[in-house]
Amino acid sequence: MLRRMNTPNEGRSPISLRRRIQTLAREFGATQIASRTDLQDRTEMPPELWHAVGEAGLARIALPEKYGGSGGDFRTLVMAAEALTESGGNMGMVTSWMSRQLISRLHILGLGTQAQRDTYLPELAAGRMTPCMAISEPGAGAHPKLLSTKAHRDGNFFILNGEKAYLTNGPIADIFLVLCITAMKGERKEFSVLIVPRDTEGLELTEGIKIDYLRPSPHCGLKLHDVRIPVENLLGPEGKAFEAISLPMRRTEDAVFAASKAGALRNILRSISHEFSGLAENDDALTELGKLSAACDGLGALAFRGAELLDIDPVANANTISALAASAREWAGSLSERIQALIEHSGSSPSPSLAAACRDFEKSIGIARAAYAIQARRRGLALFEQIMDIRNQ
Fold first, then answer.
1. Beta 157-168 vs 219-230: how paired, if at all?
2. Alpha helices (runs of H) in 276-313, residue ranges in sequence order
3. Which residue segments constitute the domains of the chain, with CATH numbers given?
4. Which CA distances in Å does 13 have to 10, 20, 57, 290, 347?
5. Phi/psi at 178 (nearest 5 deg)?
6. What percent of the chain has pLDDT over 90?
7. Quick one: the chain helix, strand, coil %, rounded to 5?
8. From residue 134, how far is each of 164, 175, 214, 270 by CA, in Å?
9. Mean pLDDT across the stretch 377-381?
10. For 11, which of 26, 38, 161, 335 is 20 to 30 Å away at the CA?
11. Beta bridge partners of 195
12. What is the CB-side half-sphere exposure of residue 59 using CA atoms within 13 A?
């Protein structure tokens, strides 16, 4: 029987809490996710499974006890993510779960007013509410220079117009955190985030971009036509949301999602060992399997270190966290290629479930590839500038 994480947790050490939640996540993955053979084919989130996440106490992990949370931190979150993916074998489910956790922790808790925290956090902790971050736009991605969704003041309201795309959890969301332009300073756009309830007049869900991987994580688009939002729904600093919300979200996602990749890799390697038992007779294949197994631990360690830095000081450690996330992405990319080579070496075709898991692993590495390339170019330019400064001394 699946155990539920209870609160409060006073008197319990952070390490003990992390281990207990890790165990809970591992049990949930094995009993509630791995047992669902239909998940890789579903384009919608099974309501009963999403409800079960909240019932098990997995929605409250990284929120304070005063709001019904477990009092965990980012390290707790990555340990749970790794365990969920390893035992459940479905990155899509963990993607939706992690998205809810990060929005709750980073944005509502981190930047919300007291009224916003009191309104949303207890519902989020109980798993009765799902938030969705709405940044990307059709044809623009998340590039700030190309974003066009706008909101202007009208007394005590913002009037919001625009369109969003690629919204993780959009079809099941109760609130949307919409990044929009609220002012212009010359050629420079100033962004804000508005909390928009799903039932707001003028809000329309659209089919959006078709996503054929990371199922059953649901996605959709969003159209906003003269949507009136009270000023008190402004989340975080007005005009500074790209710096305060969008950039930290990308950096944090990249760091903590390395944990789910580590868990997914462990699950994939177990499936390969099960399906291609003939590899045990090949020394080279066994060696490669062992190297990949060790890489799981390394990838998980990178995620844990990134989470630790987030817990210590996310602002002061921002550059190091970004570097860890970039390293994890590069590492995962090379591991994906080696996994495919190992499967090809077996001489047999993988089962549909293994093929889907490998595809999810590969595709997850390509998410936000453009933003990652921009960061890499900046690092390269900084290196050249550093060398030139040394030469000119």
1. antiparallel
2. 283-312
3. 14-129 (1.10.540.10), 133-239 (2.40.110.10), 242-391 (1.20.140)
4. 8, 11, 18, 34, 49
5. -100, 120
6. 77
7. 60, 15, 25
8. 6, 10, 19, 36
9. 74
10. 26
11. 177
12. 25
Q: pLDDT higher for 121 or 8?
A: 121
Which residues touch 323 (CB under 8 Å, ≥6 apart)? Answer: none
Q: Long-range CB contacts (< 8 A, 24+ apart) of 27-32? A: 27/2, 27/3, 27/87, 28/2, 28/52, 28/53, 28/56, 28/58, 28/84, 28/87, 28/88, 29/83, 29/84, 29/85, 29/86, 29/87, 29/88, 29/89, 30/87, 30/88, 31/2, 32/2, 32/56, 32/88
Give the start-end residues of each E strand in 217-300: 219-230, 234-235
DSSP-assigned beta bridge partners for residue 190: 183
Span 133-188, pLDDT tens digits: 999 999 888 888 899 999 999 999 999 999 999 999 999 999 999 999 999 998 89
